[in-house]
């Protein structure tokens, strides 16, 4: 072996171990960086050379710097994140809905009970002016409670639409960044570099996109990520991005009129995604809006419609103290849709309590038959159940029971979703902890690696010193 070979191998040893020390320093510096994957230098021996028939070593080099990463865990995390995102948005939306339904629905039920009790009290004292005033005020309060709850449900629906729009914009932004990561990764690989930081960032983006949208992510032979909407289209493919769009559309199925639909743009065409998005945060928001809030709002309209129609039918047969008959107690509702948002006390009765009908005529001051008929409505089963339209003669719920059924249904959905979310979060946390145990940085291990590389670096420098001394001795021989 020539002395220059000793010098060269010493140089290579110093360079390789210096690069390994740099990798260790990078790991230590990012010990607390979220989603950072530990990096590891891969050293390989140079091909041996032959001198005088003897094979001698060729030195060492850092062939590449790999990141310690388990793709199986990453794929599992992506799959579980779909359900986590869906359950998280459902849980948040249902908690808000349960608070409003619980408070305002209970208040509505109590006010309706008070109205029927006040009507019953009026039937005992039909000629008392104060009792008429109390009934008028109770009727006005019930109508206000219906409108208030209907407005609150509409507000939640609009808030959910706003969240859907914001989540779509965020997802588009992440999709564009993912496409940029694809380009950067391919360029780095083409130059023989290890794009470890880009791969880490892409893993984070993939997990965030699946948590938002719940779509499939695949990798091709060039390690390019593709985000697929099964059966619909592609969100990201290489450097190409098809943006998500939102637009208000007419009523369709469970989706209410004017609610946002989600579309996937593909050039000049677009595909409706609303029904196909069942996972991710967007899927959870859509399910709360269309499968829970809309049925609750529709049934509230049915309750308001049946309440107003039944009371009006009884009141219309009676005569007020002013001698006028055929008057409705509440403003007339021509259809159930939107009744809860429109119901109001007849302005004539609100302005003049004498217009309130208690009996069939004014000749007999003790006539209380209309008041009794109105009070009996409280105990009649007028609605089939809390999720369908009323069925005449086949009712199972009174007005009060139907309101309680709405409250109870939302409560059950909320409790079940919260339990599922807690369970799913525990699964994702466990997977993330396992990922950290594989890819995370251990400062103790890095300290040991640092000492090993430092020792090897010092040994390589001594090799150069020895080679230099040998060369100096050879030169002295001349």
**CA distance, first residue to last residue:** 20 Å
Shape by Cα distribution: rod-shaped
- Backbone CA Rg: 37 Å
Multimeric organization: single chain
Task: Provide the structure class.
Answer: alpha+beta
Mean pLDDT: 88
In the predicted model, the low-confidence regions spanning at least 5 consecutive residues are 388-393
Main sheet makeup? 4 strands, antiparallel
Trace the largest sheet across and list its strands: 5-6-7-8
Helix content: 55-70%
Kindly state the number of beta strands: 11
Number of helices: 10
List keywords for this structure.
478 residues, alpha+beta, four-stranded antiparallel beta sheet, three-stranded antiparallel beta sheet, 10 helices, rod-shaped
Task: Walk me through what this model shows.
There is one protein chain. This protein is an alpha+beta fold and 478 residues long. The protein has a domain at 3-71 and 451-477. Helix content is 61%, strand content 11%. It has helices spanning 3-29, 71-124, 129-190, 196-213, 280-316, 339-342, 347-351, 369-376, 399-439, 443-477, and strands at 39-45, 49-51, 54-56, 60-67, 216-219, 225-229, 233-237, 240-241, 244-248, 260-266, 269-272. The strands form 4 sheets. It has a 4-stranded antiparallel sheet. A 3-stranded antiparallel sheet has the order 9-10-11, covered by helices on one side. Strands 1-4 form a two-stranded antiparallel ribbon. A hairpin with a 5-residue loop joins strand 5 and strand 6. Helix 1 (3-29) packs antiparallel against helix 10 and helix 2 packs antiparallel against helix 3. The radius of gyration is 37 Å and the shape is rod-shaped. It starts with a helix and ends with a helix. Mean pLDDT is 88; it is low at 388-393.
């Amino acid at each position: 072996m020539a002395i220059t070979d000793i010098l060269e191998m010493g140089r290579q040893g110093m360079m390789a171990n210096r690069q390994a020390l740099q990798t260790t320093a990078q790991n230590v510096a990012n010990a607390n960086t979220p989603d950072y994957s530990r990096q590891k230098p891969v050293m390989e021996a140079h091909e041996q050379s032959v001198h005088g028939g003897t094979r001698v070593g060729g030195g060492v080099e850092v062939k590449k710097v790999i990141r310690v990463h388990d793709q199986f865990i990453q794929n599992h995390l992506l799959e579980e994140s779909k359900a986590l995102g869906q359950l998280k948005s459902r849980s948040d939306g249902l908690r808000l809905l349960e608070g409003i339904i619980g408070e305002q629905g209970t208040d509505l039920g109590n006010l309706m009970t008070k109205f029927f009790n006040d009507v019953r009290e009026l039937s005992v004292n039909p000629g008392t002016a104060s009792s008429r005033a109390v009934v008028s005020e109770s009727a006005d309060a019930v109508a206000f409670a219906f409108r208030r709850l209907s407005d609150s449900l509409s507000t939640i629906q609009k808030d959910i639409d706003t969240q859907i729009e914001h989540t779509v914009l965020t997802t588009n932004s992440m999709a564009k960044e993912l496409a940029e990561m694809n380009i950067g990764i391919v360029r780095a690989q083409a130059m023989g570099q290890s794009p470890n930081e880009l791969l880490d960032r892409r893993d984070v983006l993939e997990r965030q996109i699946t948590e938002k949208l719940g779509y499939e992510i695949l990798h091709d032979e060039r390690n390019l990520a593709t985000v697929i909407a099964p059966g619909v289209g592609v969100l990201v493919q290489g450097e190409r991005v098809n943006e998500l769009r939102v637009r208000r559309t007419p009523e369709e199925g469970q989706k209410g009129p004017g609610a946002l639909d989600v579309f996937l743009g593909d050039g000049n065409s677009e595909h409706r995604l609303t029904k196909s998005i069942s996972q991710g945060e967007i899927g959870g928001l859509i399910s709360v809006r269309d499968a829970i809030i809309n049925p609750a709002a529709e049934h509230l309209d049915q309750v308001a419609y049946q309440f107003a129609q039944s009371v009006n039918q009884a009141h219309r047969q009676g005569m007020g103290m002013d001698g006028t008959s055929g008057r409705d107690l509440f403003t007339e509702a021509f259809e159930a849709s939107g009744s809860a948002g429109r119901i109001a006390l007849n302005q004539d009765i609100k302005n003049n309590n004498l217009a309130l009908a208690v009996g069939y005529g004014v000749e007999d001051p003790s006539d209380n038959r209309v008041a009794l008929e109105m009070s009996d409505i409280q105990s009649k089963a007028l609605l089939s159940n809390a999720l369908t339209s009323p069925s005449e003669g086949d009712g199972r719920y009174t007005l009060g029971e139907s309101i309680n059924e709405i409250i109870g249904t939302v409560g059950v959905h909320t409790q079940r979703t919260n339990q599922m979310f807690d369970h799913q979060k525990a699964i994702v946390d466990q997977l993330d902890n396992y990922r950290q145990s594989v890819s995370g940085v251990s400062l103790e291990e890095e300290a040991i690696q640092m000492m090993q590389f430092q020792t090897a670096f010092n040994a390589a420098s001594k090799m150069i010193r020895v080679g230099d001394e040998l060369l100096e001795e050879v030169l002295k021989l001349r």
